[in-house]
Design a protein that fits this description.
Blueprint lengths: L2 H9 L15 E5 L4 E6 L5 E6 L2 E6 L4 E6 L6 E6 L5 E6 L4 E5 L5 E5 L8 E3 L5 E5 L5 E6 L5 E6 L16 E3 L5 E5 L4 E6 L5 E6 L4 E8 L5 E9 L5 E9 L4 E6 L6 E6 L5 E6 L3 E6 L4 E7 L5 E6 L5 E6 L3 E5 L5 E4 L10 E5 L4 E5 L6 E5 L4 E6 L6 E3 L5 E6 L5 E6 L5 E5 L6 E6 L5 E6 L4 E5 L5 E5 L6 E6 L5 E6 L3 E6 L5 E4 L11 E3 L1 H12 L10 E4 L5 E5 L4 E5 L5 E6 L9 E4 L5 E5 L10 E6 L5 E6 L5 E6 L5 E6 L4 E5 L7
Parallel strand pairs: 46-50
Antiparallel strand pairs: 1-57, 2-3, 3-4, 4-5, 6-7, 7-8, 8-9, 10-11, 11-12, 12-13, 14-15, 15-16, 16-17, 18-19, 19-20, 20-21, 22-23, 23-24, 24-25, 26-27, 27-28, 28-29, 30-31, 31-32, 32-33, 34-35, 35-36, 36-37, 38-39, 39-40, 40-41, 42-43, 43-44, 44-45, 47-48, 48-49, 49-50, 51-52, 52-53, 53-54, ...
């Protein structure tokens, strides 16, 4: 049994339910495994490490099942690499921090700060050195892999010109004898340098229209295969494979007959040059030495999140937001796994069927997903063309946004998924919409500030609300359906008489000078009051709005505070100020009983986790704080009985929280 498998057996399979692995305190399950950013084969070819927004998953290739989850303290892992001897695994996260861990114990042996999350990683063949590319305009760093001690650095080329695109990730590779390092110099040029003496071994330059996409050393170390994209003057792109003699700095071979948009080369241990020719919906594997096609397989998904050959060139993996496929040279078949890495950046979240089902939507990447809350599995998925969605009170209809920019509303029958109506009034993206509590109407707002009211019976547009001038950020109905509150990027929040369309009031958004209204963090409150006393105030748009279940309170999330208004007089009732690190409470929801309000914040620099805070509405007291997701909370949903809270994040996962104890009297 290999080292990764031994570690996994001891630490994870004792808990067979991977939705419970690495959970933060207070959470009972995680739905989704995070967005894939990178992947790497173990040297023995038996495991696959997958870098995601919540950590590093280790998959067993024979079963395509997860056997371990690492690096969950921060998550947001963008790069992962195994050492050739299997002893180490290195990662980079969104904070630009490199960590080197022992694969057997998961112990962190080195931590290197101050890089960029787009850096690539590579170990030397003897696993002694770790190199990282420089972002922006090439170059590389080298460290001792065991201690993290800096060994040397190589400068890149000239910075990119204004408006000039740079690759998402410059690559870096050691020669087989580990004496030399190849790295991208300035998008079109590769440099090969001696690691210890820093001597220039070779500089391999392509035409200015080419962009390097991948490269690999031959086993003998004399040749470097380079895959690049060539953009012609008429903006049409082709891919090209080149093989360079490093010693002579001469071009040995050029092949431009590949038809995809990305070309990834790799050498097998016997010196065979293989190439992955990536198209938008398929991969063609070639023996480039013989110009022989080895295999072709299709894949699904709007974006290629990660792809890589194994160390020996015998396997190739590609992952999208929908699936992952692995090709094996000795058995040219694909292993398909419809992973739970598919939640997407959650933009829709609500419970239905009495809390038995949780519905999530991700803005048009993976579709609308229906989760079995008890089994914690996806039972049903609607087309990825559907973006956001809202449910009718009777739970028979689902209104969704579709179209290139989400400007069209399509109404579906929930049971069958078949379309019932298509609403095309909006010319710009629909940014907020909701069914009325009676289920008789639908209201929708768009990027231009238009608010339209639709009859559910006829799907005819009844009227427009005139007032907002730009992006509708949020809207909510009064429980009676008689009023609707809206907010926009024009720095206004308005309450309307729903039947007549008359504007009833503008909710006050200016910072309050009355100290008696404030609750929460005293340090932050003093900052606000000091600023006001000096004649300065902070102007913020309202990002979320909600009526309490009884309809007597309106809550809104601004940049530095949660504002509560009296829903009858529209005067400010209370200002709750979260502590430092918990600002931007842009997700808000009342508990079904109305006694509590939950806010979810967005990430701030220096944070490892973002907060979900539970507030007592009557006093503004913070009852509990949960630190779960590594980045922005985008949606919150309570189960109808109030026992569970679901939080959806930019990390592409949903956490389920047990609220019974937190809200106990």
């Amino acid at each position: 049994m290999n080292e990764v498998s031994r570690f996994s057996e001891e630490n994870n399979r004792s808990s067979g339910d991977e939705t419970a692995w690495g959970l933060p305190k207070g959470a009972i399950a995680r739905l989704g495994r995070g967005r894939i950013a990178d992947l790497a084969f173990s040297p023995d070819g038996e495991s696959l490490a997958i870098a995601t927004t919540i950590g590093v998953w280790i998959y067993e290739l024979t079963t395509m099942e997860p056997i371990a989850l690492w690096e969950t303290e921060r998550g947001l892992v963008s790069t992962v690499s195994f050492s050739p001897n299997g002893q180490w695994i290195a990662t980079i996260n969104w904070d630009g921090i490199i960590k080197i861990r022992e694969t057997e114990t998961q112990r962190c042996t080195a931590k290197i700060q101050g890089l960029h999350y787009r850096n690539a990683l590579a170990f030397s063949s003897d696993s002694q050195y770790l190199a990282a590319s420089c972002s922006g305009y090439g170059g590389a760093y080298v460290w001792d892999a065991k201690t993290g001690r800096h060994v040397t650095s190589f400068k890149g080329g000239a910075p990119p010109k204004e408006g000039e695109q740079t690759p998402a990730r410059f690559l870096v590779h050691f020669s087989p004898n580990r004496q030399c390092l190849a790295y991208v110099l300035d998008r079109v040029e590769l440099a090969v340098r001696h690691v210890e003496t820093k001597e220039h071994i070779a500089r391999l330059k392509q035409s200015s229209r080419k962009r390097i996409q991948g490269f690999a050393f031959s086993p003998c170390g004399r040749f470097l295969a380079v895959g690049s994209q060539n953009t012609s003057s008429n903006r049409q792109s082709t891919t090209e494979l080149q093989v360079w003699n490093i010693d002579e700095e001469t071009l040995e071979m050029t092949d431009s007959d590949y038809g995809g948009d990305k070309l990834i080369p790799a050498y097998s241990s016997d010196g065979t040059l293989r190439v992955a020719d990536l198209h938008k919906d398929k991969v063609i594997l070639w023996d480039a030495s013989q110009r022989e096609q080895l295999d072709t397989f299709e894949y699904s998904g709007n974006a290629r999140n990660a792809f890589r050959f194994s160390y020996d060139g015998q396997q190739f993996a590609i992952a999208t937001e929908c699936e992952m496929r692995v090709w094996h040279a000795d058995a040219p078949l694909t292993v398909v796994s419809h992973l739970e890495h598919t939640v997407g950046k959650v933009q829709t979240l609500f419970f239905m069927q009495g809390g038995k089902t949780l519905v999530s939507g991700d803005g048009g990447k993976s579709g609308i997903m229906f989760w079995d809350v008890v089994q914690r599995q996806v039972r049903r998925t609607l087309s990825p063309s559907y973006r956001k969605c809202v449910l009718s009170p009777c739970e028979e209809m689902l209104a969704t946004t579709v179209g290139e920019n989400g400007e069209t509303i399509e109404v579906l029958n929930v049971a069958s998924g078949t379309p019932m109506a298509t609403l095309t009034e909006h010319k710009q993206a629909v940014t907020a919409f909701a069914f009325s509590p009676t289920g008789e109407h639908l209201i929708s707002g768009d990027l231009e500030g238009n608010l339209c009211v639709w009859s559910v019976e006829s799907w005819r547009k009844l009227r427009k609300f005139i007032g907002h001038t730009t992006w509708i950020t949020t809207l909510a109905f009064h429980p009676s359906g008689a009023k609707v509150a809206t907010a926009a990027r024009d720095y206004t929040a308005r309450v309307w008489d729903f039947e007549s369309g008359e504007q009833l009031t503008l909710l006050p958004l200016a910072e309050e000078s009355d100290v008696s209204l404030y609750r929460g963090d005293q340090r932050q409150i003093r900052r606000i009051l000091n600023r006001l006393s000096q004649g300065s105030s902070h102007k913020s748009a309202l990002h979320s709005i909600a009526f309490s279940p009884s309809g007597d309170i309106i809550a809104g999330g601004l940049h530095y505070e949660i504002r509560l208004w009296d829903a009858t007089t529209y005067e400010t009732h209370m200002v709750i100020v979260p502590p430092d690190g918990c600002q931007r409470p842009y997700a808000l929801i009342f508990s079904p009983c109305g006694r509590y309000l939950v806010s979810g914040s967005w990430w701030q620099e220096g944070q490892e986790r973002v907060s979900i805070q539970l507030w007592e509405v009557s006093t503004g007291k913070n009852i509990a704080t949960f630190w779960g997701h590594p980045t922005d909370i985008q949606e919150l949903a309570f189960s109808p009985d109030g026992k569970f809270l679901a939080s959806g994040s930019f990390d592409c996962t949903i956490l389920l929280w047990d609220m019974k104890q937190a809200m106990a009297p």
